[in-house]
Amino acid sequence: MDKTRRNLLRSMAITPVLLGSRNLFTSPLDNTSATSRLQYSVNAYTFNDLLKSGEMSFFDMMDFAASLGLNAVDLTGYYFSGYPKIPDDKTLFQLKKKALQLGLNISWTGVRNDFTNPDKTARASDIELIKNWLQVSSKLGASIMRIFAGKGKYEGYTKDQVKSWMVSDFKECAEYAEEIGVIAAMQHHNDFLYTADEVIDILKRVDSEWFGLILDIGSLRQGDPYEEIEKLAPYANYWFIKELVYVDGVAEPVNMKKIATILKDTNYTGYISFESLTDGDSKQIVTSMFNDFRSEYEKG
Q: Mind listing the pLDDT tens digit for each residue in 217-273?
């Protein structure tokens, strides 16, 4: 085989690999021509009282998700026995096995942290907590883990000062997230970052593909929530859909048509998780939300 032919065959073999690897870690902001393909999950906080009382287990939650036709479950860290201590591998692998049997993914885990705390030692402890649970997430096969900004109590400091150390803490988490292979994603929670612009500012300052955003439609409570959601949508790695949104701080039922339109306009191709916070039968509420959303989204 002559040299020219060998080089041609080599370049043909390598080209698909290079083309495929170019978008391996695509930013949610990058344009894509792929058809929007949603996956559906349910968040454990929906069953907060039942999980805390022991009336429901993660296994029961998985059975419900599978029966409804969801694709995944969000297993929040603090419903594991012994939290914040990490579960043993046997516990985690039993959950993975159950998910496999039901055809589900475990897409998400989440912990509590407070990076608004002026106490550097306390924040260091929360960083260690996040690192430990990123390991748990990896063992479960979850691709994303929820973390918070904080509770918004920072007496004696300006908000800009808090943001400065918060960004530093998030960067450390993102660096470890990259090592583990699980995105550390901030859920804005109406407790420190109240507007879309504030959230976007933090995302840009951390500036890591391993630090993401969980878009919580119920935690944008200033002005028009749909305008705020639309601002955040291009940055979202994961969505929480709740039954209520807040217009100038006043609760009203979510308009699924508006949410579906925003998702289509941004060509979102990831997970949507349903989370119920209101009184009533949580399973019925989630079922209704799921059916209502899917009906709107699948309209031509």
A: 999 999 999 999 999 999 999 999 999 999 999 999 999 999 999 999 999 999 999
The CA distance from 218 to 245, in Å, is 5
DSSP annotation string for 216-278: EGGG--SS-HHHHHHHHGGG-SEEEE-SEEEETTEEEE--HHHHHHHHHHHT--SEEEE---S
Name the strand (E) or helix (H) holding 184: strand 183-187
Using pLDDT thresholds of 50, 70 and 90, give the confidence band for residue 18: very low
Burial of 46 (0-12, 13-18, 19+ CB in 10 A): buried
Give the chain's count of helices (H) and strands (E): 10, 10
- In tens, the pLDDT along 140-188 reads 999 999 999 998 778 899 999 999 999 999 999 999 999 999 999 999 9
CA 83, 87, 88 angle in degrees (round to 5)?
155
User: Residue 166 in contact with residue 150, Cβ under 8 Å?
Assistant: yes
Bridge partner residues of 184 (DSSP): 145, 211
* Structure token digits, residue 127: 């960083």
Name the pTM for this structure: 0.87
From the list 227, 283, 287, the residue with the least C-alpha distance to 255 is 227
Distance CA 217, CA 189 (A): 10
Instruction: Quote the tokens at residue 237.
Output: 């790695």
- Please give the Cα distance from 122 to 128 (Å, whole number): 10
Which pair of structure tokens corresponds to residue 173?
Answer: 């988490």
